[in-house]
TrEMBL record:
One of its GO terms (molecular function) is hydrolase activity. Its main location: cytoplasm. This is Carboxymethylenebutenolidase homolog. Residues 30-245 form the Dienelactone hydrolase domain. Keywords: Cytoplasm. It comes from Chaetorhynchus papuensis. It holds the Pfam family DLH.
Length: 245
């Protein structure tokens, strides 16, 4: 595995050689990557990027995968012009950097994107997925946004919303067994709290042997023994969206 000693090794995907099938658009004050299926659809998924931002090829690869499964996919710049984290940055400054990018303060941008999807793309059923920082943002949205139908949080940083579990919509949580960022004790506690407080459908799934970032890992960093779990995670994500959208 590459970069496993990093505090947030999502950047195992930072060199994914992938250009994307969609296009970049300006939606009010937000730049976004949009990909649409050839056949018209009223189903859309908002893709929330990790700390490496909306232009990370790996994230666009997943957006395009959603499109091949019949969804309009949009990955907005939720940092709204602020610089994404770079693998070359000094990790000692990471906490200060993160303070200016709050996964719980994206509601204004989400409202803008929802309006765009409804008015410009004809979307009626809209879900959300997110990775790492974006996975925490998914949990935030599932707790409060009435306009989204469902969410998939992929290795979302649990401690960000550790005390909030009354989800409004069906939510699927994906975690890696060997994720250094999200210890299994936190996942167990999340499950316990959801069982006590959550009144909608949810699932928490741990994938054996997998580390942080595994579902959108770049091709050359995929070990043969990990590939089945990566494919399973992607398939599970699609199946969950298909069930609720």
């Amino acid at each position: 595995m590459a970069n496993e000693s990093r505090p947030c090794p999502c950047d195992i995907g930072d060199r994914f050689d992938y250009g994307g099938r969609g296009q970049e658009v300006q939606v009010e004050h937000i730049k976004a990557y949009v990909c649409k299926p050839p056949a018209g659809t009223d189903k859309a998924v908002i893709v929330i990027h990790d700390i490496f931002g909306w232009q990370l090829p790996n994230t666009r690869y997943i957006a395009d995968m959603l499109t091949t499964n019949g969804y309009i996919a949009i990955c907005p710049d939720f940092f709204v012009g602020q610089e994404a984290w770079k693998p070359s940055n000094d990790w000692a400054s990471f906490d200060d950097w993160l303070k200016t990018r709050d996964a719980g303060k994206i509601d204004k941008e989400v409202d803008v994107i929802l309006k765009y999807l409804k008015d410009q793309c004809g979307a009626k059923k809209i879900g959300v997925i997110g990775f790492c920082w974006g996975g925490a943002a998914v949990q935030h949205l599932m707790l409060k946004n009435p306009h989204l139908k469902t969410g998939v949080s992929l290795y979302g940083v649990i401690r960000r919303f550790a005390d909030k579990h009354s989800l409004l919509h069906p939510t699927f949580f994906i975690f890696g067994e060997k994720d250094d960022i999200i210890p299994l004790e936190q996942v167990t506690l999340l499950e316990e709290k959801l069982k006590q407080n959550c009144k909608v459908d949810y699932e928490v799934k741990i994938y054996p042997g997998q580390t942080h970032g595994f579902v959108h890992r770049k091709t050359e960093d995929i070990n043969p023994q990990d590939k089945p779990y990566i494919e399973e995670g992607r398939k599970d994500m699609i199946n969950w969206l298909n069930k609720y959208l």
